[in-house]
């Protein structure tokens, strides 16, 4: 079955015409039933020296991460740290590997050296059945793929395509500014369907509330957006620009800026922004070699998100008016971000002196790109493009320098991200 979906998309196809429903099984793998394309292999430290690391990406609840390599992909469990399994591809590696929670469905995009899956094709892979269940082909290189239980979102340089996961039908096309980083983020509550991406103006973020049939444009920064993330229900948005000095938190319902924190004074390349599940903390990694933790003054009214593959209850905030919702978005926290001793002169001195600075910090090698996420019990997990994994803890009351609890070199590589 082949579907012509848009002028920019050459073809969309599935092996049986219809994808499985959103209630996928638990993500697992076995040697039995492997296709000719993939070869299941046990971890072998001897082959690490021949394997290049192309990408790392967290699943939606940060309980796992996927590594795209020059030979295929690998999945790692974060608590306890363990390589769950790997798939090796004879024709080359993958530059993008996107998981769907801990389910058996993956979205894969090949590297330029992959003879079977080029970088302009997205493969929806069912690892439980060890087969491809859908493919998307584009005329330009795919920059990112995002999954939720009912949607497949594919990002190319100037456009974002939103497909229904059940039958791969194209639902939405969104025009963006040039987006080489593939910036796009999704909510993951089943009853709150929110997408955030760059707008058509510099520093602008476009927020699509699909369930409410509402589009909100937020002028987040004066410079181009470098990184963004949403809470699980899509009600809060955190952004950073290419200047990399300030991180801002917005209410996506009405675009109100709720908080602003300062990473530093010097320009920095922000690698990623992470929000803790309870929305008490925000983490930022950059090329300055420091992971910063900030205390948030915002919270989301509602139940904590579930992290399994079942239906998730949404936030009560969506059942309120946007004006009422702001009352529930500001709350006290256990820790407080430090500010300048001259902050009482706010409005007189430059903005720098009234800034909120990071609450806790962890130092890393500056030459490596790192991505962060929150673990359990006030811990932060960090994965580097040098094949390193860190787990560190922070004091939720006093902050300061974080304590390293674990370090693992899961892949021996000297390569840098592509």
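^ Assign residues to that structure.
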């Amino acid at each position: 079955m082949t579907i012509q979906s848009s002028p920019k998309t050459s073809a969309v196809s599935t092996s049986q015409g219809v994808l499985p429903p959103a209630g996928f099984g638990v993500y697992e793998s076995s040697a039995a039933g492997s296709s000719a394309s993939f070869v299941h292999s046990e971890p072998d430290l001897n082959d690490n020296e021949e394997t290049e690391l192309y990408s790392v990406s967290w699943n939606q609840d940060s309980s796992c991460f996927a590594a795209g390599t020059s030979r295929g992909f690998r999945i790692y469990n974060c608590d306890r740290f363990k390589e769950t399994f790997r798939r090796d591809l004879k024709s080359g590696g993958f530059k993008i590997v996107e998981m769907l929670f801990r389910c058996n469905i993956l979205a894969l995009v090949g590297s330029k050296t992959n003879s079977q899956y080029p970088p302009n094709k997205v493969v929806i892979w069912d690892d439980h059945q060890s087969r491809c269940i859908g493919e998307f082909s584009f005329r330009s290189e795919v920059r990112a793929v995002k999954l939720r239980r009912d949607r497949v979102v594919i990002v190319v340089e100037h456009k974002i395509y939103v497909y229904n996961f059940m039958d791969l039908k194209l639902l939405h096309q969104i025009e963006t500014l040039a987006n080489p980083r593939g910036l796009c983020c999704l909510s993951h509550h089943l009853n709150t369907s929110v997408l955030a991406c760059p707008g058509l103006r510099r520093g602008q973020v476009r927020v699509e509330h699909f369930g409410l049939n509402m589009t909100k444009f937020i002028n987040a920064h004066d410079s181009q957006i470098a990184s963004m993330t949403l809470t699980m229900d899509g009600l809060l948005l955190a952004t950073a620009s290419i200047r990399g000095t300030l991180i801002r938190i917005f209410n996506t319902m009405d675009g109100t800026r709720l908080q602003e924190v300062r990473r530093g004074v010097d320009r920095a390349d922000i690698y990623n922004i992470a929000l803790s599940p309870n929305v008490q903390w925000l983490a930022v990694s950059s090329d300055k070699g420091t992971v910063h933790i900030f205390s948030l003054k915002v919270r989301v009214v509602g139940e904590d998100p579930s992290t399994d593959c079942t239906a998730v209850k949404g936030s009560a905030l969506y059942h309120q008016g946007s004006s009422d919702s702001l009352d529930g978005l500001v709350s006290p926290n256990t820790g407080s971000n430090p500010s300048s001793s001259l902050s009482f002169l706010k409005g007189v001195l430059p903005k720098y002196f009234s800034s909120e600075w990071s609450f806790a910090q962890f130092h890393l090698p500056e030459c490596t790109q790192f991505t962060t996420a929150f673990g359990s019990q006030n811990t932060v997990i960090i994965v580097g493009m040098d094949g390193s994994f860190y787990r560190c803890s922070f004091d939720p009351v006093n902050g300061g320098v974080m304590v390293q609890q674990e370090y693992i070199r899961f892949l021996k590589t000297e390569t840098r991200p592509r």
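The chain has two domains: 1-143, 176-418.
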